[in-house]
Write a structure and sequence with these properties.
rod-shaped; Alpha-Beta Plaits; coiled coil; Four Helix Bundle (Hemerythrin (Met), subunit A); transmembrane; Rev_trsase/Diguanyl_cyclase; HAMP_dom; about 425 residues; Diguanylate_Cyclase; single chain; about 75% helix
């Protein structure tokens, strides 16, 4: 099965689910990619910035502040003396050493920072070497050591400043990268929203068109059936739900046609004998009269009446009378040609319309029916048999005669047959 056929065979519910999936897919993709951006470019970057700030920048700033304090303490001691300055220096030196150890652990995986920090440590070691000379030396040596102290601590402070600047640059770069990632995510979210809206519009339009076209076909088919046109079936393929409705509607229409045909047939036939009824008699005789106005061949009408039927019915009951009517109808129909028409005219009276027949054949056809009826027997409810006879009046007709004339002539001949003793055939003379 082709992909298009598979799609067309999807149910309306599947179409809706597929449409929802198409609309949600951009959002789901955005959520997935957004999480990836957050995890790899935002979260990790922030972790780097926070790590640098808390484990590197803060100790570095503390060292810078302590360097100022140490410089002040040493200079104050050189000018004023006093054991308090020595105690303060020793405490500050321990603090610097602790902060340098903490920074060494924080930048253990960064060779560039390790190199700068190593330089800071070297200058700090020089500071520690010359400080005893400042504190314990003679005025001459103290001044010389103080100059060395100032030079080394300044160099250490400069390298700390360099390290701080690089850390700040790295933080700014991380901040910039984070902002770019957020901006990229915003653009992606906007594109996803636009795509989702576009897909939603396409999906809604497609489903709407499918439903509207199929619904219009269904309504159009229903209107055709209502107007009497039941030949063309409703052709709906999608969605399957409406296709099933159309299929059921087509089945219902066929059933209606069959029922109407049965009703039309029942309206044309006599319920007891199965012969065509009086309404069909009027139509067929009129049609035959019109046909004889065109053709040169003659036609004939035989009016056939069961003799003493009322007495038979009263004596043997209505069921036996019905059997007699069916029996006579069967005899007449079995003797008729394919081109002939047999009718139950009313009550115990029948009619036979003969087309394209010569005058000498009319009497032969009527006599054949009379004899066949006469030599048959009707089974009565008591198990006995009873014979019946019929009287027949015939009238030949060709072009230029009216319906009333031909029926009147055949009836007149029938009455003559009954008046002359029944079980006879009389052909009317025009």
């Amino acid at each position: 099965m082709k992909v298009s056929e598979k799609v067309r065979s999807l149910s309306l519910r599947s179409w809706l689910v597929l449409g929802m999936c198409m609309v949600l897919l951009p959002f789901a993709s955005t959520a997935f990619y957004g999480y990836k951006i957050y995890r790899e470019e935002i979260s990790k970057t922030f972790e780097t910035v926070i790590h640098a700030h808390h484990r590197m920048l803060l100790p570095l700033e503390r060292i810078q502040d302590i360097f100022w304090d140490i410089s002040d303490e040493i200079n104050d001691y050189a000018q004023e003396g006093g054991a308090g300055h020595i105690v303060s220096f020793e405490a500050s030196a321990k603090a610097v050493q602790a902060q340098l150890v903490e920074m060494s652990l924080a930048i253990a995986d960064n060779s560039r920072y390790e190199q700068i920090l190593h330089g800071v440590q070297l200058h700090w070691e020089q500071v520690l070497k010359v400080v005893p000379g400042v504190l314990e030396g003679t005025p001459t040596t103290a001044d010389s050591n103080l100059q060395i102290f100032e030079r080394e601590i300044s160099k250490a402070a400069q390298q700390l400043g360099q390290l701080a600047e690089e850390l700040r640059s790295e933080s700014e770069e991380a901040h910039r990268t984070t902002l770019e990632a957020i901006k990229r995510f915003e653009i992606l979210a906007l594109l996803a929203a636009i795509l989702a809206i576009g897909l939603a519009i396409v999906t809604i339009y497609t489903i709407d068109r499918v439903l509207m076209i199929s619904t219009d076909k269904l309504v159009e088919g229903a209107m055709r059936v209502a107007s009497g046109d039941r030949e063309q079936e409703i052709d709906i393929q999608v969605p399957p739900e409406l296709a099933s409705v159309a299929k059921a509607f087509n089945t219902m229409t066929r059933q209606i046609v069959l029922q109407e045909a049965k009703l039309q047939l029942a309206a044309r036939l006599d319920g007891l004998t199965g012969l065509k009824n009086r309404r069909e008699f009027d139509l067929k005789v009129a049609e035959q009269i019109d046909a004889t106005n065109v053709k040169t061949a003659s036609s004939a009408l035989l009016m056939i009446d069961i003799d003493h039927f009322k007495r038979f019915n009263d004596s043997h009951g209505h069921l036996a009378g019905d059997d007699a009517l069916r029996h006579v109808a069967k005899v007449i129909a079995s003797g008729a040609r394919e081109t002939d028409e047999v009718f139950r005219y009313g009550g115990e009276e029948f009619a036979l319309l003969l087309s394209d027949i010569r005058q000498n054949q009319i009497l032969q056809a009527a006599e054949r029916i009379r004899r066949e009826v006469e030599k048959t027997h009707i089974l009565l409810p008591n198990g006995e048999y009873e014979t019946i006879t019929v009287s027949i009046g015939a009238a030949e007709f060709a072009g230029g005669i009216s319906f009333n004339d031909i029926v009147g002539q055949a009836d007149k001949a029938l009455y003559q047959a009954k008046a002359s003793g029944r079980n006879k055939v009389i052909v009317a003379k025009f």
